[in-house]
Amino acid sequence: MPTLKNNIFNAPFFNVFVYTLFWAVQIVVMKFAFKEGAHPITFLIYATIFILATLSILVVPWKWSEIKEIKRDTLCKIIIVNIPFGFAAIFAYTGTALTTAINAGFLVNVTIVITLILAWIILKEKMTLVKILSALFMLIGVFFLSTKGQLIIPHFGDILILLATVFWALGNVLVRKILKHSSVSGEVVSFFRPLSTLALVAIFVLSAPIFPLNIENVLNVNFLNFSYVILAIVVGILTAGISIFLNRTLKVASASYVAMMSIMTSVMVALLAILFLNEGMVLIQIFGATLIILSGIATHYSGISKQ
After folding, report:
1. Do the beta carbons of residue 64 and residue 185 sit within 8 Å?
2. Which of 94, 173, 193, 242 is spaced 20 to 30 Å from 232 by Cα?
3. From CA 264, how far away is CA 208, in angstroms rounded?
4. What DSSP assignment string belongs to the chain?
């Protein structure tokens, strides 16, 4: 008989809240690292290595019996559904280096729209009026919170970030599909994600000379630069937590719910930035944060997690 503790631990809201909290802290740490001059792809490689190390410690001992019993076709599916996250990480880190923080902060939330569309097409999740309106108000809120209501100036990196949102959305939808229709746990699916990312990063880094100069410069890594390795360890641990709780949420809730509730990360990032980065908020940003919170409440209580 399930206990109250198990019910809470497996509840969609608990898992998505922990996921968004980890993500918010990760964004702030990465923001600080890049502000201090960390090279995006070098930082991504080190962080991914520490993600793998963290998941090996947290997941393998706990889920070893499950990992051993995975059938070959299921393993192939797990590897395939994790590939989009590798592309998303590469495009997001490269795009962040080639655009402004304001642009990146807003555009990354386009994931919500793409996820709703892909979940509707691939997973046959319902496209309701409540879902559409909540997503619209969330995006308006994020725009105000990220840009202070000012129009953003396009940069080349924006295209890469938009590509990252497509792959993030596709990854979430595919993971939801495999978790929904199999007995495999979200933790085990998480374990294989950094492996896919490292393989793709290696391909992109080796192919750097064929890209335009601005992208080639981003892909030229310096493995001997250990200046930001401590921050990479922190990001690796946080990202491992993100992966675990994201997949735990996708196991028990719809992809639409996960995408929409994860937009609360923007509010958490703003609060953490005020506390630790000495950033402030103007009235229009507070209005945007309020829109996001109210839309999040509507999303949670509208039953979208089960659609």
Report:
1. no
2. 173
3. 35
4. ---HHHHHHT-HHHHHHHHHHHHHHHHHHHHHHHHTT--HHHHHHHHHHHHHHHHHHHTHHHHHHHHHT--HHHHHHHHHHHHHHHHHHHHHHHHHHTS-HHHHHHHGGGHHHHHHHHHHHHS-----HHHHHHHHHHHHHHHHHHHTTPPPPP-HHHHHHHHHHHHHHHHHHHHHHHHHTSS--HHHHHHTHHHHHHHHHHHHHHTGGGS-HHHHHHH---TT--TTHHHHHHHHHHHHHHHHHHHHHHHHS-HHHHHHHGGGHHHHHHHHHHHHS-----HHHHHHHHHHHHHHHHHHHTTGGG-
Domain boundaries, the chain: 13-306
Read off the pTM. Answer: 0.85
Which amino acid would we find at residue 231? L
Q: What digits encode the pLDDT tens for the residues 195-207?
A: 889 999 888 888 8
The token duo for 171 is 């990854």
Distance between CA atoms of 57 and 69, rounded to whole angstroms?
Answer: 19
186-237 pLDDT, tens digit per residue, is 889 999 999 889 999 888 888 878 777 777 777 788 777 778 899 999 999 9
